[in-house]
Amino acid sequence: MKKLVIAIDGYSSCGKSTTAKAVAAVLHYAYLDTGAMYRAVTLYLLENNISFDDLPRIEQALHELHISFRRHRRTGRNEVYLNDKIREDDIRQMRISNAVSEVSVIPVVRHAMVAQQQRIGRRRGVVMDGRDIGTTVFPDAEVKVFMTADVEVRARRREEELAAKGEIVPLEVIIENLRKRDRIDSTRAESPLRRAADAVLLDTTHITIDEQVDFVLERVSAALFG
Hints:
Blueprint: E1 5-10, H1 16-27, E2 30-33, H2 34-47, H3 55-64, E3 67-71, E4 78-82, E5 85-86, H4 88-91, H5 94-104, H6 107-121, E6 126-130, H7 133-137, E7 143-148, H8 151-164, H9 171-187, E8 200-203, H10 209-225
Parallel strand pairs: 1-6, 1-7, 2-6, 7-8
Antiparallel strand pairs: 3-4, 4-5
C-alpha cells in the first residue's frame, strides 16, 4: 500500500503529539516530534551557556549535538536522546518552554532541523507534528491537519502534564507562556506557524483524543482510497 506523509501542525498543547503518536501506531508508521528537536537544541544551548544571539557558537553547537528518538521497550513511549543520553523529561520542563520559541526563530537552527526532518520523511510512511510541516518541511504531504484549541483549555492540559512530572506551575503563568509562544511562532520571519491552504482545520477544544485520532485517520483513508 502507498506510504503517506502525514503533517499535523498547530498550536502548543492542542494534542498534536498525542494524536500523531496514536495515528502512527495504528498505521505502523514512523513518528517524528519535530518540536522535541527544537526543545533539545534549546536544552543544549542553555546547559552550555550559549547565548541565543551568538550565531557562530550556535552554528558550532549544531555540529556538536546529535538528536535521536528511541522507543521505550516497556512503555512504548517515543523518547528523545541528546548525544546518546535520554533527555525526554528534561526538554519538557517549563524553562525550556519559556525559551524554545526564541531558539526556533534562529534561521541556522531552523535550516538544520528542517533538513534533518526532510531526510527522515523521504522514506515516507511517517507522521510528523510541529509548526511548519505542511508549509515548509513537507508542503506536498498527502494529509495535512492544522490543530487549534482555546488557550485556557490548552493551558489546563499543559498544567496537568507538568504536574504529572512533579512541576507545579500557576495556570496564569502557563497561559502567558502559550500566548507568548503563539505570538513568536506566528510572526517569525523563518517558517512561521500558519495553516497551509490545503490543511484541514481541527479544533480540539471540546473533543477527546480518540476523536482527534479518528478525524486524522478518516483523512488518511480518503487520501489512500479516495
